[in-house]
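During data preparation, a discrete fold description was generated, as reproduced here:
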Amino acid sequence: MGKLDGKVAVVTGGNSGIGLATARRFAAEGARVVITGRRKEELDRAVAEIGRGAIGVQGDVARLDDLDRLYATVREKHGRIDVLFANAGIAEFAKLGEITEEHFDRIFGINVKGLLFTVQKALPLFADGGSIILNASIVSITGMPAFSVYSATKAAVRSFARSWTTDLKDRKIRVNAISPGPIDTPGVDGVVGSKEAADQFKAGLASQVPLGRIGDPDEIAKAAVFLASDDGSFVTGIELFVDGGMAQV
């Protein structure tokens, strides 16, 4: 028996990194999984890797028409949603004084607007008593240089978890945020560019983590399974830090 047997789970940004690791875990625990991703080739590989009847829907969460296509597919194939992991997001560095309107609109468009409508458009399909998990970050409470816009989007995500917990309490839908610390994902590599720069960046982050290393995407996935399953049945409105202690001490 899996912890998510018979449940329908949607994971945005499920084509790589934390999203893919979580989709794999959800499927292994018995969920019927639908993932999204912007890049078709990568999405197709992820669906094959997840297996167990997983479905991939190509799209960008910042495009509302793409979200409509996602939920039309979910409605057609499964008829409902029990678990939503609103994971899709992007990160880019930009120092104060160098922030452009394009940078601001891109980061807020995906991380805030996209996440908000990912959740809102899912509600008509959502089963009462379901679980919504938002992917936030420790940067919402830290002051990393050149990361102010990204950090602000993650502070908004944390705020959404609080507000939506009260908005959805009558439907017994639990809303929680996971705040990862530094995690070894393709997204981290993409922020800094070259492999050498990425290795140096990750080594610097690891030196700030009490456990002495950066995390693995599957360590976030395990936390997501807890929040998605009956193990977390009395947990709502929280921010669950999975950061090796980086933002805690």
